[in-house]
Design goal:
CATH topology of chain B: de novo design (two linked rop proteins)
Order of helices and strands of chain A: HHEHEEEHHHHHHHHHHEEEEHEEEEE
Oligomer: heterodimer
Strand order of the largest sheet of chain A: 1-2-4-3
Number of helices of chain B: 7
Radius of gyration of chain A: 27 Å
Distance between the termini of chain A: 54 Å
Number of strands of chain A: 13
Largest sheet of chain A: 4 strands, mixed
Structural class of chain B: mainly alpha
Radius of gyration of chain B: 25 Å
Number of strands of chain B: 0
């Protein structure tokens, strides 16, 4: 736990709420005064309206009411709202025993007071997010794509990362910020759209007093206020989300699972996956483990997440242990900086956390998961590259792209036979070379990576490698080096 | 005049002292509760494992007719673990149970029909998860115990701890042969 980070997140939440109240009140006051003045001018000629200054206060009260409703929404109902927006379905131990078990294991490791609710989003893109105003009332959500792609250790890494966001109160800040700012965005979008379809307002002479004309004037002004305010607010949101929180959640994940390679390998799979999350509205993008809009590879000023390859390299560089100190050391090594990532008071300097051995995933245990998946009507698709995709029945339709080699596979729908066929015999496609001859140009005396045509595996050759051929360890393809 | 100053200084020091002592006392209580809570978590998971074992044995019995000894070893280890009291004793007995279960799982490898039994596979996933939970609960307990023990030993909180009879909590160290078998590589 990062006490300073938790305190900072709580403080930022309060600051955000208060700042939004002030901004909305000011804008409401200005808008009210403007409307009052304008109405006065158009309705009574050039003399100021009798209720001129009062209109400002009316505007402010309206704005504060809006603020209060937003605050209530943020504090009471936003979790349900986001889960609904993301299209999440709650699951139980009976339907997805392994996922549920992994979440409960991480709940125990992090000493959360209650079991988080567990949700699945029907989306082939691998990703996950966490919601929760406090550790007592929280939820984790993973996509079906993540479930299909990850083994137990990887899933554990991702879930621990999400629990880290809950424990560090990132979920609290994001939840409140996204509801309040998101609502403003939605209101301004709707107003903008309805303005486009309200041509009456433009052709009415402003001189006609009362009735529709006056309503339209109010309406247009309100719309302008929101249109001006919403981009300002959303850039505040994006600037205020520190990229550091992802590193801290990674550090928490490593320490809780005592197995950094699990999360690293899951992030690799997420990075390589060509599937793009289709169900994520922009408002909830910052919630996800990995930004669903794929900006993560660059970084950049407006990025909500740190670059993914860097996160992976840091986790992979944690050779000595899984404590916070080890994470910071790996961070220093990878970024070549000496930035104090974790507040010294939260570092637990005296602590040593040994990295545990990977879960024994014997073929038998892999089969356990497969049989449970087969019982739940997962569709199994063997790909010629050796990967077997296991797809939950909810989205077994359309074209599915192999995450390893990028081949497209057409899925016709839930099909019990596919799982049985795979379970009956080992995959027919493993260890099958492409049959094509492959030759690559060798750059002498340099490190080089060649891609196997048979399975898409990247084979890295050291600068000292001097043989004429290399054999792919995954599919047996022979690559000649010329 | 100087008398009143001295008086107020003394009062100030006493008030500051009381506030510090109360603060330390409260943090000690919070830590002790955390340790107790973590311990109850371990307890829940150990019970869960005890409950799963008859299930496992019952499912396997039909297939593994000639493995009386293995069954007996697991059942006996379970009975021992249930009877154990006190953190070190429980840790030792549960460590033995873990060993008995992993031996049982190794023997089970020779029975392909059993491994294809869906009931058995479901129990196996639950058992594997329970093993993980025990490991994580133990981790959380030991973390909490370490924090408490540091407070009990370190100055100045050790004085308050002595005053109100806070004691160090034992760590939960399980005997596990498989953990010992993993070679440790050190680069330092």
């Amino acid at each position: 736990m990062f006490w300073q980070v938790i305190a900072a997140n709580k403080r930022n939440t309060v600051i955000l709420v208060v700042a939004m109240g002030v901004v909305l009140a000011l804008v409401g006051f200005c808008a009210g005064s403007l409307v009052g003045a304008w109405l006065g001018m158009t309705a009574y000629g050039l003399e100021p309206a009798p209720g001129g200054p009062n209109a400002g206060w009316v505007g402010m009260v309206i704005a504060l009411l809006v603020w209060f409703v937003l605050l209530l929404a943020a504090l009471l109902g936003s979790d349900e709202l986001f889960l609904g927006l993301a299209g999440a379905k709650e699951i139980s131990h009976d339907t997805y025993p392994q996922l549920f078990n992994v979440v409960e294991e991480m709940k125990i490791a992090s000493s959360l007071p209650t079991m988080p609710r567990v949700f699945i989003v029907d989306d082939p893109a691998p990703n996950a997010f966490a919601l929760g105003k406090s550790p007592k009332k929280c939820a984790v959500c993973v996509t079906a794509g993540l479930l299909a792609m990850c083994d137990r250790d990887e899933l554990q890494g991702v879930i621990a990362h999400e629990i880290g966001h809950i424990v560090n109160r990132d979920a609290l800040y994001l939840g409140v910020a996204a509801t309040m700012l998101g609502a403003v965005t939605i209101i301004s979008d709707t107003l903008l759209r309805s303005l486009r379809y309200a041509p009456v307002a433009r052709y009415r002479s402003p001189g006609t007093r009362g009735g529709k004309g006056m309503l339209n004037v109010w309406f247009i002004l309100l719309a302008f206020v929101f249109i001006i305010v919403s981009p300002i607010l959303s850039s505040i949101l994006y600037f205020s989300i520190s990229r550091r929180r992802e590193y801290l959640a990674d550090a928490t994940s490593a320490r809780l699972t005592r197995y950094p390679p699990g999360l690293a390998s899951a992030l690799e799979k997420i990075m390589l996956s060509p599937a793009v999350l289709t169900t994520a509205p922009r408002v909830i993008a910052p919630f996800y483990t990995v930004n669903p809009y794929k900006q993560d590879l660059e970084g950049g000023l407006f990025a909500t997440h740190p670059p993914l390859p860097q996160r992976i390299r840091i986790l992979r560089a944690m050779a000595g242990g899984a404590s916070f100190r080890d994470y910071v050391k790996a961070y220093w090594d990878v970024t070549r900086t000496r930035k104090q990532l974790i507040p010294v008071a939260d570092m637990r300097l005296g602590e040593t956390v040994e990295i545990r051995a990977p879960s024994p995933m014997t073929p038998e245990q892999g089969r356990t998961g497969d049989i449970i998946r087969a019982m739940n009507d997962f569709v199994f698709i063997p790909c010629p590259c050796g990967m077997t995709m296991k797809i939950p029945p909810e989205f077994a339709r359309g074209v599915v792209q192999c995450p390893r080699c990028g081949r497209d596979h057409t899925v016709k729908g839930p099909d019990k036979g596919s799982a049985a066929a795979i379970l009956a015999g080992a995959s027919a496609f493993t260890k099958q070379a492409s049959g094509r001859e492959q030759a690559e140009r060798r750059v002498k005396g340099a490190w080089q990576t060649v891609t196997c045509l048979g399975c898409g595996k990247g084979i890295t050759l050291s600068s000292a490698f001097s043989l004429g051929t290399v054999t792919c360890t995954r599919c047996g393809q022979v690559i000649r080096l010329t | 005049m100087t008398g009143t100053i001295v008086f107020w200084v003394v009062v100030g020091i006493i008030v500051a002292l009381v506030i510090t002592v109360v603060g330390i006392y409260n943090s000690l209580v919070a830590l002790r509760n955390q340790v107790r809570n973590a311990w109850s978590q371990i307890d829940v998971q150990l019970k869960r494992r005890h409950d799963l074992i008859p299930n496992l044995v019952e499912t396997a019995k039909g297939y593994m007719k000639h493995e009386r000894e293995t069954f007996d070893a697991v059942t006996k280890a379970r009975a021992h673990a249930e009877a154990a009291r006190g953190v070190p004793q429980i840790a030792q007995a549960e460590g033995r149970l873990t060993e008995a279960i992993s031996r049982f799982m190794a023997v089970m490898e020779n029975y392909p029909e059993l491994k294809a039994n869906q009931n058995f596979l479901a129990v196996q996933e639950e058992l594997a998860s329970t093993e993980n939970r025990i490991a994580f609960a133990r981790q959380a307990y030991n973390d909490a115990a370490l924090l408490l023990n540091n407070k009990v030993e370190m100055f100045p909180s050790n004085i308050v701890a002595k005053l109100f009879a806070f004691t160090k909590e034992p760590f939960f160290e399980m005997e596990d042969s498989s953990e010992r078998a993993v070679p440790k590589v050190s680069f330092s």
